[in-house]
Amino acid sequence: MGQKTHPIGFRLGFTKTWNAKWYANSRAYRELLKEDITIRSAIRARLRDAAIARIDIERSTNQVTVTNIFEIRYPELDANLIAENVAQQLERRVSFRKVLKQTVQRSMKSGAKGVRVAVSGRLGGAEMSRREWEREGRVPLQTLRGDIEFGRATAKTTYGTIGVKAWVYKGDIEPAPRQVTQNAPATAGRVA
Question: Which superfamily does CATH assign the domain made up of 15-71 to?
Answer without folding.
Answer: K homology (KH) domain (3.30.300.20)
